[in-house]
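Lay summary

Proteins are chains of building blocks that fold into shapes. Our project writes down both the chain and a compact code for its shape. Here are two examples, one after the other.
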Amino acid sequence: MQRNLFSALVLASCLSGVVHAASNKPVPQLPKEWEEIVVGGEALCSRGTPYSFFVSQGKSNKVVIDFMGGGACWDEETCAHDTKTFLESVADFKRIFEPTGIYARKHNDNPLKDWTHVIVPYCTGDLHWGSNDQEYTREDGRKFTINHRGAFNTRAVLKYVEEHFRNPEKVLVTGYSAGAYASVYWLPPIQEMYKHSSVMQFGDSGISPITEGFAKKAFTRWNAQAAFTQWNVQKTGAKIPDLDPKNVDWNKLQIGFIYEKLMNYLPDIPFGHYTTAFDGTQRGFFWLMHGDTKQWPELVKNTLQTLGKSSKFRYFSSQGTEHGILAFTRFYDVKSTDDELFQKWFKSYVEGGTLKNHDCVNCIDDEKEMWIELRKPKEPAQIEEANLEL
């Protein structure tokens, strides 16, 4: 119990930059170029509020499908309302959205400024994978339900996209944090929708290993396999044998494994990823999964280098602990340790250029001492002082 309480507090600190900011701000109107599409039917946010998504029409015949991040929840503590560990509603997303990074339409160096953007908000705590309304029980016996309906919400968005964007020249499937996992999970049905378009994938800060204990809890409570099975059989018309849930042990599933198998199944699609070498938020969640944060940088580096042996997978790892790049102003400033600007590298990626991979060489973990301290017992007031950016 002591570790569980500690975990919840640490996770809250990991998410403080987003969740607390969202809670303390009024719900704004997004810039006028963004149209909000309200979804009915089975689509729903975690605590029963309506689900909607956002579209900004571009000047070119190119489309970005962008899955948002915002924490995760998988047990009675992380899912409890008072822990504030994940974005619970579309209103939360609207409070924190800023038209920066790849959303800066007027920025001349934005390679996506003329693309149509489709934002898939995240409010279900399930990596956009869930197909289950899960009841959780607090220690005092009180019960509450979380609508892990990320898959229902995504299907509604993709239905709209397929109906409104018939033959785009290019389709970029991307996602930030939790959304990075969704950009891989939902890639096959999107590719099926656009067989005659140039489809590519790019994940932003979502390449972390997961532990078996976490997988047993989360994937079961989210019913994460359900949507996977449906598109695997019904949408594509053929199974991907190496990813068929009947053949895969989901308790040991790793994101690198999914990348590897999809790269084999979808030979014409480029894959890519960005992360900082010591991403504080990804390490925070790995710690909550009972993983060893000391091992995290090397595990991620090994995953990237293994995938990067294929010419179909390109990656860019920079120094520091910051989480995410595409939606931030640092999109235009970050460089690799061998001095390549990420913005130029990414521009070449979406244009189909030849790229080299970038490892973070001779990098130092700026928060090493903080992570050593996190392993020691502390009072809650001390724990809350640890601020990691999401």
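And here is the second example, written the same way.
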Amino acid sequence: MSNKYHEGKACDAVLCYIEAHDGTRCDRDKICLPELEGHKFPIELTCQIEGRLLAFEHTSIQAFENQVELSIHAAAFFKPIERTISSVLPHSEKYMLYVPVTATQELKGLTPRKKEQTRGVIIDWVRKLAPTLPVSPCFGKLNWQSVPGVPFPMCLCKSGEASDPDEPIWIIRVVERDLSEARQNRIRRAYKERVEKLAAWKRDSNARTVLILETIEGPVQWKVADVVLDIANATENRPDAIYLVMTHNDHQWWVSPLLVDCRSIHELNEPKQWAWYIDPKSLRSLTGR
């Protein structure tokens, strides 16, 4: 991820989910940007679907302070590695290289030459290890390995047949330690700051209100859902729907319906409903941000 925010694309992702799952027969219409237009209740986006006004408010949630900034630095370091490895691995298979989200903190103070040497060590390690790996689940408990010359642990998994033949490897940054309390505080703060504006749109315009939470972690829909449901059930002016958009890499985003009307994610039966895949390259920034 190279951008700090994905506000406009996250809104588009949720709209695509709604259009795909709610049986709507026509596209969104009459898109407005109240915040940019100076509205007294400055939410990100409104539009109409089948004549019903929808009001969207977006906010990012971080597991810890400076998580977004760390991710931007990591993208600059890991993107050349991803490109090089993609040129040598077979494009018929898919690999996931996991690194700690704080990995680039360990690179502070290194010279550009030393950083390039570290990239080379990572590339060589992946090239040698990849052919020996069996297909295995790429989520759950990770088997972290220490590699001489690399100041952070790594885990390489082979998931099988490539879903995107142009990208045989994805580098995914994950949060290692338990950050449940910090995450709860940030979700609670983000929720409180946003729902009052949405409530005004429901009161004054009878809009269907949608809160979008964006995280650069993934997959964390269950952890976030539990926090959101506790907050929503204990407060007034609950939005009609709350979605989580997981934007943890440039190739694959996931949309999770945490709470839609009175139905939570825990009541859904199909995995594709829990976390719906969408290619971010297919999205457009509806707000320009």
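What can we say about the second shape? The chain has two domains: 7-64+179-282, 67-174.
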